[in-house]
């Protein structure tokens, strides 16, 4: 007959049992109810941070412009990479097919959509379409979109987050961008319906806030400010004080902007036309990974070879490099010998930047530039103007077919907040 357990032994067993429960309760509180372990000691071989497994958080991905100069293979590769990362769904910001406002051949357009949708079939998760100026913009293209996808703007909610997907091509053609009155009133109604949304995410193809403010462009050698009345201010007013974030494509340059103490993003490309001059210029192929939290979206830009933070190219980057335009403009056939190039520089950053500018000449070039190089130091908001003289080493009244010099710029600050490397060409009429 087995000897029964003594009372002290039973008490000891019960004490160990309750101690174990208490230990598990501590682990549950700090790491979550799904975490179990075999470590009996008070000290643990891991940190006490909680697991990031809030059931209200979720992850989705953004893809940007595929067209406006398709580079084959990039978008299909992005599909495969995203399948490996397992977002819950994928959202586009438009320009999915070559299309265009002048493309009215129905057969061609339907073939382009067939090709694009063959890529989308490769996704393991839902994909949300958004029209860009290459996707709609004439009666034929608009009708095909309606046949395939039903509506050109819509909304949905996911885990109490409102997704507002708008169509910036409400007007005929691609220019100017427009949110029509009917769409604006619908969007305002959707915002009113979902006033208690914990966050609102707005998706548009063209960055309407920039077009309302005006974008500096060069036309026939002159800098002009092009503004458009887009209907966006009405949407912005309706958004009011709610928590929201805006995403756009179209410009093929990544940039983070702050408006109304809210983050507005223009995305780079996912296979669309780009000179791919690097992160400082916001020119890179990427997908944007978004983790939705109660504090707002946490973002990272994913390249094939790495992960980039969301402020890799800020509005200050955009202002800086876009300001790097020669003041002069030469017609083809002009004698450039003795001509002067003037380059304005302005530091739009909050920190000192240092750089070097040097002219790059082709082998056996008949050109010379004075000065050949310049070292530049700019304090925050400081402006400088550099002047260069173009010279021929051999007599020639007109510029020859030989390659013209290009100005190479290299700026880098010690904190690695700025890392810019680019080339400027002598501005000639095409």
Care to give the gist of this entry?
By secondary structure, the protein is α+β, with helices and mostly antiparallel strands.
Shape: globular
Total beta strands: 21
Helix content: 10-25%
| SS summary, helix count | 8
CATH topology type of the largest domain? Purple Acid Phosphatase, chain A, domain 2
Radius of gyration: 28 Å
CATH architecture of the largest domain: 4-Layer Sandwich
Which CATH class of the largest domain? Alpha Beta
Strand content: 25-35%
By helix and strand content, what is the structural category? alpha+beta
Task: Give the strand line-up of the largest sheet.
Answer: 3-2-1-12-13-14
Largest sheet: 6 strands, mixed
**Termini Cα gap:** 105 Å
CATH homologous superfamily designation of the largest domain: Metallo-dependent phosphatases
What does this structure look like?
The chain has 430 residues and is an alpha+beta fold. The protein has three domains: 12-50, no CATH class; 58-320, Purple Acid Phosphatase, chain A, domain 2 (4-Layer Sandwich); 324-425, Immunoglobulin-like (Sandwich), CATH 2.60.40.10. It contains eight helices and 21 strands. It has helices spanning 7-31, 74-85, 106-120, 139-149, 181-193, 208-213, 232-239, 315-322, and strands at residues 58-63, 90-92, 127-128, 154-158, 161-165, 199-203, 215-219, 222-226, 244-248, 255-259, 262-266, 287-293, 296-303, 306-309, 340-346, 353-360, 367-370, 373-378, 383-392, 406-412, 419-425. The strands form five sheets. It has a six-stranded mixed β-sheet, with no helix packed on it. The longest helix is centred in the first third of the chain and has 25 residues, at 7-31. The radius of gyration is 28 Å and the shape is globular.
């Amino acid at each position: 007959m087995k000897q029964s357990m003594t009372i002290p032994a039973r008490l000891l067993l019960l004490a160990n049992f309750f101690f174990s429960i208490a230990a598990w309760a501590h682990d549950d509180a700090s790491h979550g109810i799904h975490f179990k372990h075999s470590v009996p000691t008070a000290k643990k071989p891991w940190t006490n941070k909680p697991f990031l497994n809030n059931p209200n958080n979720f992850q989705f991905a953004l893809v940007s412009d595929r067209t406006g100069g398709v580079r084959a293979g990039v978008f299909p590769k992005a599909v495969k990479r995203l399948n490996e990362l397992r977002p819950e769904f994928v959202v586009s910001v438009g320009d999915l097919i070559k299309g265009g406002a002048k493309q009215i051949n129905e057969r061609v357009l339907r073939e382009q959509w067939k090709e694009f949708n063959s890529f989308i079939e490769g996704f393991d998760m839902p994909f949300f379409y958004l029209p860009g100026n290459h996707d709609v913009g004439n009666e034929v293209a608009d009708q095909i979109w309606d046949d395939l996808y039903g509506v050109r703007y819509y909304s949905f909610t996911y885990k109490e987050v409102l997704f507002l997907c708008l169509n910036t091509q409400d007007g005929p053609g691609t220019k100017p961008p427009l949110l029509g009155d009917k769409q604006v009133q619908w969007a305002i109604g959707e915002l009113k319906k979902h006033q208690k949304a914990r966050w609102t995410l707005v998706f548009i193809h063209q960055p309407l806030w920039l077009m309302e403010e005006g974008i500096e462009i060069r036309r026939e050698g002159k800098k002009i400010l092009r503004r458009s009345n887009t209907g966006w201010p009405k949407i912005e007013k309706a958004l009011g004080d709610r928590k929201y974030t805006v995403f756009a494509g179209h410009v093929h340059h990544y940039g983070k902007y702050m408006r109304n103490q809210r983050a507005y993003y223009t995305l780079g490309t996912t296979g669309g036309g780009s000179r791919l001059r690097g992160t400082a210029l916001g020119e890179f192929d990427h997908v944007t990974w978004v983790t939705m939290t109660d504090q707002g979206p946490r973002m990272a830009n994913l390249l094939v070879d790495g992960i980039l933070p969301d402020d890799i190219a800020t509005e200050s980057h955009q202002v800086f490099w876009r300001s790097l335009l020669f003041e002069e403009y030469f017609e083809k056939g002009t004698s450039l010998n003795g001509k002067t190039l003037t380059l304005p520089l302005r530091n739009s950053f909050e920190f000192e930047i240092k750089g070097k500018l040097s002219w790059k000449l082709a082998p056996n070039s008949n050109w010379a530039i004075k000065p050949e190089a310049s070292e530049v130091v700019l304090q925050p908001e400081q402006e400088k103007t550099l002047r260069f003289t173009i010279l021929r080493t051999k007599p020639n009244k007109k510029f020859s077919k030989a390659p013209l010099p290009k100005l190479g710029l290299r700026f880098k600050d010690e904190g690695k907040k700025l890392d810019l490397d680019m080339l400027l060409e002598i501005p000639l009429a095409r």
